[in-house]
Every structure is written in structure tokens, then in C-alpha cells.
Amino acid sequence: MKTLIIVTHPSLDTSVINKSWVEELEKYPEKYTIHELYKVYPDGNIDVEKEQKLVESHGSLVFQFPVYWFNCPPLLKKWMDDVLTYGWAYGSTGDSLKNRKVAFAVSTGIKNEDYDENGRYKYTLEEILVPFKATALYCEADYRSFFAFYGAEYNPSTSEVEKSVQDYFNFVENI
């Protein structure tokens, strides 16, 4: 089954990292479905049934987004609140994510060294992303960790972007 890449970036057209990742995965439509939430739901009104069916029609899930205020963009939070319902994603009859491979791919504006107990923000990115891991585990998904690009706001070089694209592709391929 194909992998569903749920991309939640409010301005993907102006993104360097997320846009490059999407462009690479779009080369393989037989393997990946790119689902851009801000493009599909510009008004924020999510079609829950449509989203649940989309998830069900795919094997693995990757949630791709830039880290915003140490969290995800608001539309992804809304998507999770609306779509991951009791009886569908969790609960006594909610098994739609059970054993489904789930991973996260994030870009940060902040440099890697700032995500450290001794760094500027005192927490690792892994610690900041714990709520997403906990959500996956709560839904009994097969959590596959996360991929990250650090320092996007520091105008990464072409070679850094190209390396991240290849590393991201390899990450998704090996979920």
C-alpha cells in the first residue's frame, strides 16, 4: 500500500525545506500520496469522513510539518482533534491506526544545538515531539520516530537542502 504524507505547512509555496521534500516525493506517485491540508482545507473545515477513508486506504502515515512555537501548525492539531475520533482511532472499537506505521517529519527554524538540555530552549526536539509520539502510541500505531531538519531560518545552503531531501527520502522509504 502507498504511504500517505500529510503535509501541513501554511505557506508551502515559500518554504525551502518542506517544499523540497514534497517535490522529491511527488516524483513517486505510485508510492506516495501527498495530502496538503492547507490546500485542501483553506477554511479549516475538515471533512472527517473523507480524511478517515483516505487514511484507511493507505498503509503508512507520515505527518510532515514545520515546528511552530514548539508544536505543530494549528490545522494539523485540528485535523488530529477532528479525525482521530473515539471508535475510529482509539477506544474499544477504534483500531484504524492499530499497527499502522506512523512517523513524523519536521523542519525547525532553530539550530540543532539549541534543542538540548544545555541549549537555548532546554529541551530536545524528541522531548518536544513527545505528544505526537504519545498520540500514535495511544492509537496503538507502530510509531517509527521522526526525521528533522534543523536551522531552516538560517538560509540553508543548496547542498544542505539537497542532503536533507535525500535523507528524508531514505527515511520515508525505510518506514
UniProtKB/TrEMBL annotation:
- Top-rank lineage group of the source organism: Bacteria
> What's a Gene Ontology MF term here?
FMN binding
What Pfam family does this protein match (any one)? Flavodoxin_2
Chain ranges of the Flavodoxin-like fold domain? 1-168
Key words of the record: Oxidoreductase
Which named protein is this?
Answer: Flavodoxin family protein
Organism annotation: Lysinibacillus sphaericus (Bacillus sphaericus)
